[in-house]
């Protein structure tokens, strides 16, 4: 029973001491430790009574009392303590000695002046608090009394010799009695030899500054040698170590002098640190401005300070301060210093919460900077918490958000599940490519589809790719047509020989006479081969040409196609005429590709040029999706997607409902004003930069086509009665109608048929239920 009351209280201590990395700090031994229940790291100062003298034990007990009662942000924080007959334990925040910290920084290139300026600012502020507010003298200031926490902030400790400066008697021995080596840090005047009460402490402050920049102080006379002390600090340092104690400044006055314009402590780092200490009482406008400026300064701040000081304030500002999107840029900059585990714990939960925000500025910044954090997101969080919010951007009225949402799919696609990728995402892509009024967004949708094609399942690729890229080749925006061509090249490995011959090559052949030179060039590289390295970056696949599929699979004994540099066979009608009136526009060699793939006679018709120019504006007829494919018997096959978004594309990629980026008048459907615009004049710009309703674009397009119709000819395939071949839209059929008119008539019939089917489906489903969402 008596043994129960005689239990060692250390066993019930809530903290465990770790034996490694123990350091000597005066009469104390500094050890690393952790809380037994949570594993939270701490520092433990240990003093063994049996190993010390009576004076040392007296100092240890005095330090225990002072550390427990003195509270200040720049004084070592007391967490817990234990005093027994055998030992004393003081538990504080995790810290290391200043000497060890500076040694570690020296191995990395040395501590920066910014870090030292803030560290000295903190020590002087703590000393001012003791002298001016608590009326105490430290009497033990030196390298051994300064500690550094995880954020790199300096803390004042070593409170063993603290005494009152109001004349109260004390029985504590001076530092040199305990350690004779400390005598060189004593001021030259005798105790009570004149001067103010703080003169001894500010002299030791000068010794501390000397040692921070120059290392261990060998003797008091060395203080006259400035060494590496910065020039900005020299005049104020000299005041501290002046022989006359009456001219030594009060710690508060010294701090004020160093913070004056041009002073050592007047810099962006100190300003930012002071703002963070008072951020809770700052106005919202001041916080907004601070976080905007913080991003520019973070690169020069110490890494540990960013992780342990700036990051918690950023997270607090977002969760409780309504800081909004302004914290994102500095947040992601600080995130670069975190390990993968720390990123998951501290930043990912905040990012997931941000995606549910309705703030447009927040959403667009998240999309723009997704590359910085996508690797830390797991698939479950992407599919259940992030993607459902991101898809709202596809239907946002702001073009910039729609554009960034499309681009973000390049990063999200590898993490999406089957339903989100092959159904939900494809539905939104189909709507954007068919209905979006911004050409660059339609172009980026096509580019993105080409890049994420490897992640689609085989069935969806077969249903979507050819139809989607065929649709793009009929877009009025030149860059979209070029993207469609490059999409075929980038995904060539997914097409069979039959698909390449019957669906892809006929589509590409019609583009060999495209009004835009960039589109023609891309078609020639795709169809006849070329340098893949000169293509758009996302389309570089190492493929030489689509026709190589046909060449490799040609039956034995079949006639090989002519070499690329072989002479072009002439048609029976003789060589094609050229227009010499315009010297700057030379005859395009695209007809070589057509003749090589379709061995038939080529003729040129200037009337066909005018006819095709007017067809550009009426050729962009649209449905909404990519689910309408043909069976072998020519009947349309349905897919699960048909229930949600209907049959949208014909076999060749043409669309069943008319679409135009801007409302067109009756005259504009027969004039080239809303036709395809040359990329040399329009270029690919941000979606927000385009004004599709302005007159400027129309006049530029009109001038382009009026010039083009006089300087360029179109290839027309003549039809022979005894052979089947691909024919041009402007050839005439036995019924007397031109091919273009016949095609237009078929499209109209097809459109009416689709409308009838949709009406039947709608009638069968009945009226929408309350709360149901109507899909386009």
From TrEMBL:
Keyword Transmembrane: no
Biased composition (Polar residues): 577-587, 657-668
Domain of life: Eukaryota
PROSITE patterns: HEAT_REPEAT (PS50077), PROTEIN_KINASE_DOM (PS50011)
Cleaved signal peptide residues: none
Domain Protein kinase: from-to ranges: 1-311
Region (Disordered): 554-587, 608-682, 737-776
Keyword tags: Coiled coil, Repeat
HEAT repeat segments: 386-424
Function in brief: Regulates COPI-mediated retrograde protein traffic at the interface between the Golgi apparatus and the endoplasmic reticulum. Involved in the maintenance of the Golgi apparatus morphology.
Family (UniProt): Belongs to the protein kinase superfamily.
Name of this chain's protein: N-terminal kinase-like protein
Natural source organism: Cyprinus carpio
């Amino acid at each position: 029973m008596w043994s129960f009351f005689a239990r060692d209280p250390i066993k019930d201590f809530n903290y465990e001491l770790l034996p490694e990395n123990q350091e000597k700090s005066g009469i104390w031994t500094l050890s690393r430790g952790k809380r037994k229940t949570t594993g939270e790291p701490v520092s433990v100062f240990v003093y063994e009574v049996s190993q010390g003298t009576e004076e040392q034990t007296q100092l240890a007990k005095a330090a225990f009392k002072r550390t427990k009662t003195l509270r200040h942000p720049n004084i070592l924080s007391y967490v817990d303590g234990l005093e027994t007959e055998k030992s004393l334990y003081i538990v504080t925040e995790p810290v290391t000695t200043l000497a060890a910290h500076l040694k570690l920084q020296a191995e990395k290139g040395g501590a920066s002046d910014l870090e030292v300026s803030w560290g000295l600012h903190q020590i002087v502020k703590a000393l001012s608090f003791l002298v001016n507010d608590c009326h105490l003298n430290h009497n033990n200031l030196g390298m051994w009394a300064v500690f550094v926490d995880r954020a790199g902030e300096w803390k004042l400790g070593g409170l063993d010799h603290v005494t009152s400066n109001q004349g109260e008697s004390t029985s504590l021995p001076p530092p040199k009695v305990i350690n004779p080596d400390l005598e060189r840090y004593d001021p030259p005047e005798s105790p009570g030899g004149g001067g103010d009460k703080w003169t001894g402490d500010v002299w030791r402050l000068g010794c501390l500054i000397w040692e921070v920049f120059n290392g261990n102080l060998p003797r008091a006379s060395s203080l006259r040698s400035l060494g590496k002390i910065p020039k900005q600090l020299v005049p104020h340092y000299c005041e501290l170590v002046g022989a006359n104690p009456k001219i030594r400044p009060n710690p508060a006055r010294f701090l004020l002098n160093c913070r004056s314009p041009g002073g050592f402590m007047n810099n962006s780092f100190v300003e930012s640190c002071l703002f963070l200490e008072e951020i809770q009482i700052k106005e919202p406008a001041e916080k907004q401005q601070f976080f905007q400026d913080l991003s520019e300064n973070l690169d020069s701040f110490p890494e540990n300070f960013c992780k342990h000081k700036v990051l918690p304030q950023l997270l607090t500002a977002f969760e409780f301060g309504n800081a909004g999107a302004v914290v994102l840029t500095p947040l992601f900059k600080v995130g670069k210093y975190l390990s993968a585990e720390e990123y998951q714990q501290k930043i990912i939960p905040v990012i997931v919460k941000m995606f549910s925000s309705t703030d447009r500025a927040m959403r667009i910044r998240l999309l723009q900077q997704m590359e910085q954090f996508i690797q830390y997101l797991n698939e479950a969080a992407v599919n259940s918490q992030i993607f459902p919010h991101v898809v709202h951007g596809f239907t946002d009225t702001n073009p910039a958000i729609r554009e960034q949402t499309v681009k973000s799919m390049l990063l999200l696609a590898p993490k999406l599940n089957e339903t989100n990728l092959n159904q939900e995402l494809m539905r939104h892509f189909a709507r954007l490519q068919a209905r979006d009024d911004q050409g660059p967004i339609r172009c980026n949708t096509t580019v993105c589809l080409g890049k994420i094609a490897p992640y689609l399942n085989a069935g969806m690729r077969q249903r979507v790719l050819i139809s989607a890229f065929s649709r793009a080749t009929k877009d009025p925006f030149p860059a979209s047509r070029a993207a469609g061509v490059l999409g075929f090249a980038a995904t060539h490995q997914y097409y069979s020989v039959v698909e390449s011959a019957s669906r892809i090559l006929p589509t590409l052949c019609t583009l060999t006479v495209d009004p835009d030179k960039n589109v023609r060039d891309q078609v020639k590289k795709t169809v006849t081969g070329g340098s893949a390295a000169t293509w758009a970056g996302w389309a570089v696949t190492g493929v030489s040409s689509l026709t190589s599929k046909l060449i490799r699979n040609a039956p034995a004994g079949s006639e090989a196609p002519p070499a690329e540099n072989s002479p072009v066979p002439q048609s029976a009608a003789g060589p094609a005429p050229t227009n010499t009136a315009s010297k700057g526009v030379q005859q395009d060699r695209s007809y070589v590709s057509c003749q090589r793939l379709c061995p038939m006679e080529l003729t040129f018709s200037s009337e066909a040029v005018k006819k095709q120019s007017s067809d550009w504006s009426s050729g962009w007829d649209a449905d909404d999706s990519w689910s309408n494919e043909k069976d072998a018997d020519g009947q349309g096959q349905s897919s699960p997607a048909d229930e949600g978004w209907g049959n949208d594309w014909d076999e060749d990629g043409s669309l069943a409902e008319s679409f135009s980026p801007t409302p067109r008048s009756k005259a504009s459907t027969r004039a080239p004003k809303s036709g395809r615009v040359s990329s040399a004049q329009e270029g690919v710009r941000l979606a927000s930069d385009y004004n599709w309703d302005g007159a400027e674009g129309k006049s530029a397009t009109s001038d382009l086509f009026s010039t083009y119709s006089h300087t360029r000819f179109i290839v027309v395939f003549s039809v022979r009665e005894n052979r089947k071949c691909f024919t041009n839209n402007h050839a005439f059929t036995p019924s007397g109608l031109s091919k273009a008119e016949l095609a237009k008539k078929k499209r109209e019939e097809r459109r009416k048929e689709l409308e009838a089917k949709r009406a039947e489906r709608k009638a069968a489903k009945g009226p929408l239920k309350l709360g149901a969402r109507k899909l386009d």
